[in-house]
Design goal:
Blueprint (H helix, E strand, L loop, with lengths): L1 E4 L2 H13 L8 E4 L13 E6 L1 H26 E12 L7 H11 L4 E9 L4 H4 L1 H7 L10 E8 L4
Parallel strand pairs: 1-2, 3-4
Antiparallel strand pairs: 4-6, 5-6
């Protein structure tokens, strides 16, 4: 297993959790890298990439659509020819539906990934970023909606 993060602190916490869980640290490779840096991962070296919330959503938030596409290109290059991307696509916009996120992912990943399956999810940590928290604090009734989707996407073969 290879874990990549730009934060040394996050990698330290991951290692600590791995030790607490009794995992074999010889089988865990920690990489302090920025996934928007060209060539940061070896080409075609991974069968599966698990992209958790922080990756894609933070990149979209700070670097917009172009940053997200650059990020997807990095993951595409890193995957083996029949590789899979398991991705939690998230939004910081409270009322963006899961269906809209799947369309966004699909459009951004044209020529790189093909969605094989997806499910809407509503992770607890969304509330931290959600404007609905403010509505609750003001005594208003928020409208809860799906704001994330878990996507299984297959790598489209290089042309």
């Amino acid at each position: 297993v290879t874990a990549a993060d730009v934060s040394e602190e996050n990698l330290r916490l991951l290692k600590k959790a791995a030790v607490s869980a009794g995992l074999d640290l010889d089988r865990l490779k920690l990489l302090k890298i920025d996934l928007l840096t060209e060539g940061c991962l070896s080409d075609a070296s991974y069968a599966v990439v698990l992209d958790v919330w922080v990756s894609g959503s933070v990149i979209q938030y700070h670097d917009g659509r172009e940053g997200f596409i650059k990020y997807l290109r990095t993951l595409h290059r890193a995957l083996e020819p029949d590789g899979l991307l398991l991705s939690e696509v998230e939004t910081l916009e409270p009322r963006r539906q899961a269906e809209a996120l799947v369309r966004y992912f699909s459009n951004a990943s044209i020529g790189m990934f093909e969605i094989r399956a997806w499910d809407p999810i509503n992770p607890d940590y969304v509330a931290f970023f959600d404007r609905e928290v403010s509505a609750l604090s003001l005594g208003k009734n928020p409208q809860k909606q799906n704001r994330a989707a878990f996507i299984v996407a297959g790598k489209v073969q290089d042309a």
